[in-house]
Amino acid sequence: MAEQSQARAFGARFEDVARRLPSKTALVEDGRAIDYATLESTSRAIAARVEAAAAGRSGFAALLCSRKTTTVQAMVASLRCGRAYVPLDGGDPDERLGFVLRDGAPAILLTDRTLAARARALAGATCAVVEIDGDERPDPSFALPGVAPDSLAYVLYTSGSTGSPKGVTQTQRGVMFFADAFVRRLSLGEADRLSLLWTMSFAAANMPVYAGLLNGATVCAYDLRRDGIGGLAAWLDRERISVIHAFPTVFRGLCATLPPGAKLRHVRVIDIGAEAAYTSDVATFREHTNDDAIFVNQLGASEADVIAQHVVAHGDPVPRGALLPIGRPTPGVEVRIRRDDGSDAAVDEAGAIVVCSAHVSPGYWKRPDLDAQFLPPDPRQPGRRCYVSGDRGRIDADGRLHFLGRTGSRVKIRGHSVDLAEVEAALAATRGVARAAALAPIPDGATEADRIVAYVTAASPADADGPALRRKLADRLPPYMLPSTFVFLDELPTTATGKVDRFALARLVPPDVGARSDTSPANDRKRRILAHFRDVLRSPHAGANDDFFALGGDSLLAVELLARIARTEGRALPAATLVASPTVEALARAIDAGDGDPVEAVTLRADGDLPRLWCVPGMVGDPIWFAPLLRHLDPRRPVAGLSLIRLEQRVSIVETAKHCVDAMLAVQPEGPYLVIGYSIGGMIAVEIARALAGRGAEVAFLGVIDTTARGTDGGYLDPEISFWRLPPARTWVPARASAYRCACAASRVRSCPDARRSGAA
Hints:
Layout: H1 2-6, H2 10-20, E1 25-29, E2 32-35, H3 36-54, E3 61-64, H4 68-80, E4 85-87, H5 94-104, E5 108-111, H6 116-122, E6 128-131, E7 152-158, E8 166-171, H7 172-186, E9 193-196, H8 206-213, E10 218-221, H9 224-227, H10 232-238, E11 243-246, H11 248-256, E12 269-273, H12 279-288, E13 294-301, E14 304-313, E15 328-329, E16 334-338, E17 351-357, H13 368-374, E18 385-395, E19 401-406, E20 410-413, E21 416-419, H14 420-428, E22 433-439, E23 453-458, H15 466-473, E24 485-488, H16 502-507, H17 524-537, H18 555-569, H19 577-580, H20 584-592, E25 600-605, E26 613-616, E27 639-643, H21 653-667, E28 673-678, H22 680-694, E29 699-705, H23 739-751
Parallel strand pairs: 1-10, 3-4, 3-5, 5-6, 9-10, 11-12, 12-13, 23-24, 26-27, 26-28, 28-29
Antiparallel strand pairs: 1-2, 7-8, 13-14, 14-15, 16-17, 17-18, 18-19, 20-21, 22-23, 25-27
Helix pairs in contact: 2-3, 3-4, 7-8, 11-18, 17-18, 17-20, 21-22
């Protein structure tokens, strides 16, 4: 049955589902639902526009859209007209996106209104830009072309060992093979509602989208970057999600936000992968799910989506040891463990994981050298390739695969596959860096790294500035590839042949990283917080004065940490608190300060002689959303956020604004005031400006992001003050905590006069 379904192209199988279930919801995002009939008609219409714009030229269709559902519509359209798609992530810097577009040379770039200007700036002369909105009507005269199942489905660009991203290709037959395997193992059906937490540029998005759409299920998109883990539990309940597909880090962070014993009542499958899973995760799963739920630990890669899976039900025994097995290989996939000499390893012997199947990636885009190294033909069975994964593992006597870590320069950083060679190439290309190397240390007892450490020889003493170097790298690398720690050396150690001596570097202990603090916690509260630090970061040597972010912490782990602190200390803190108070000692002081007022001023950047920028968050209420904005602003500008997490939900916008003004005046008694708000925070920012003006204060700048910029009287803001005036029809457009959106906001802040200027909404 599976072979017969894979003998047809994606479009034919999708059309069967759309005819059978026309009114069934296919996609959901931000409350907007798209049924299968609508997805069929809009994707057909987009396909017609693609072919018209291509004007007979072959080539890929690149996708750069701000909404996941629009991206999926464009993806379906591309597959139905036989064009492989190249998904782009708007959160990546322009330099990386530009490389992908030059290397992939697409004929078409599909985008939406939000990212259209950026798309046109990135597209080359031979790439036609087509703007779509997801509401296209089909042209009755357009006939979809015939598509073979072995035609390319997509090219996904991942971190590359040569210092540049590499394109991983897959056929429609190949991706449908893995989707069918995913469906069988999880028993997916039409009644299921699957979470989509990632952009389509990441391989982890493949299975929920393909498995969902080919089986009549509903795919529900959630924006982790925008809304964070803090809002995930409520969203899962509201959308009645039955299948969660996530990284272990996200799963742990989600459960940390739940009260003890609270159930994810609609969830029947938790499917995790891309990071090591622990037997302790099974206990967490059992605490927070119903008795009929299953826990699935999965190994996959861009080159092979579903390699092996291990399923644990509530009544099943938990394997001994800290690490959870990955399980038995997917039917149709053979996993071999290879010794260094190329021979097969014995049972329970560690070695390199090699994945052999007719359905692994057919090759890397325009990289025959990588094909020969990582995707050679299977010498034992014609018609198959072997993916040499770079992972180490063993197969036990029961045939279960166990993951033992990475080999070579490729590492996993919280689910993201990173080649340290690309990080080093970005370092070498950065002004002020004479020489550099990057390592990803693995903590004791772990199988994978939790952070990247950069070792740098600076061009001059003034260039030995870690935060400044990290800001420069952010223009070249996505956030998950940025080093969290910089170690500056007069010279990098070398071997006798002149190569960087990485073993010598590994013996160097970065300052404030991995060593116990000399100061022991002085009281029980600090000892409890330190225990949370060590558990969340999986860093047993973290000290009371160690920096959370220097130890590899990020916004997802911040939510997990603060959820644990809220349980034991009875005090809810916004994630943005960690920006100003990133150590155990500082967090304890923040808790000891008491609950305070309903709105709390949180410092995001303390230093600077320019007027302070005040940031008002959206529905989640945590100003951590604005953290990506900092690197785009003048470093001389202080930035503060207003935490709304302790406000009662029924408080009006005007009353909220009054609390905000009180918090602002306590920190900054005099103007000029610069205020920026996102989503509903934009409406609060409007009322803050009104309240300040009513006191005779000076408002030098007021900005709103993705907000219908109306005050309580229904009038729009003064255009001399507002930098974003969106009509009501655009209010559904989601904001992105991305480099692009933050850069746009920052450019408006930089251009506002710092001289005193009167005026208010």
